[in-house]
Amino acid sequence: MPAARPGPLGALAAVVPRAPGRLARALRDRGLPAGHPGCQPVRSSTGDRVGGGVVEFVNWYVRRGRIDRRVFWLHYVLPTTLLTILAVGVDLSFGDTNLMAVAEGRETVLELGAATTVIGYLTILPTLSSQSARLHDLGRSAWWLLLNAVPLFGQLALLGICGFVPGQPVANRYGPPTTGPAVAGPAVAPDQPWVPGPADRAPDYPPSDWR
């Protein structure tokens, strides 16, 4: 027996499945066959945006997998640097730091203000997770984060590695590359957490030289 054909309302619902407000509900509730796209409930776009924003923030705050140099600089180094500069400005405006005295040579021990201290603690985790993701993009272990324990020189060396060394163009044990198609890399030990296959591909991003 042939399937029932939807009426004019059903045809209109198929054309405008995301029509707003009461029109959308009317199209979805009147005489549409089960399984028709117009029968899907109307979802709150505001709730979706809020939930998606929370998920994106969590993924930014605790980054996993691999990221390329573009994401490292634009999504991590730039915003954390701007936040730090803003916090230092707030401390200077309230006289909560002796930065100017240290810069002028009148004092030798730098005392950070409350705003700078809070921002520093809040950005530790995203900074370390972004560095770890960049190291994974290079095929390196997160143990390289111990370079941060070496004051100044180790931190600058790690920044140079994460910010300027291109990532591997092939899939490695940490996942596929984030730019361009993933090409199966060399075989890894069976106890590794992830082994790429020939069909593994990265998200369909345009070609980039920021790998």
Please give a structural write-up.
The chain has 211 residues and is mainly alpha-helical. Among the domains are: 8-40, no CATH class; 63-164, no CATH class. The chain has eight helices and no strands. Helix 4 packs antiparallel against helix 6 and helix 4 runs antiparallel to helix 7 (124-137). The longest helix is centred in the middle third of the chain and has 25 residues, at 69-93. The radius of gyration is 26 Å and the shape is flat. The chain starts with 7 loop residues before the first helix and ends in a 47-residue tail after the last helix. 19% of the residues are buried.
What portion of residues belong to β-strands? under 5%
Oligomeric description of these chains: single chain
**What is the helix fraction of residues, given as a range?**
40-55%
Number of helices: 8
Main attributes?
8 helices; mainly alpha
What is the secondary structure topology, with strand pairs?
Elements: H1 8-15, H2 21-29, H3 45-61, H4 69-93, H5 99-103, H6 114-122, H7 124-137, H8 153-164
Helix pairs in contact: 4-6, 4-7
Summarize the structure.
The chain has 211 residues and is an all-alpha fold. The protein has helices at 8-15, 21-29, 45-61, 69-93, 99-103, 114-122, 124-137, 153-164. Helix 4 (69-93) runs antiparallel to helix 6 and helix 4 packs antiparallel against helix 7.
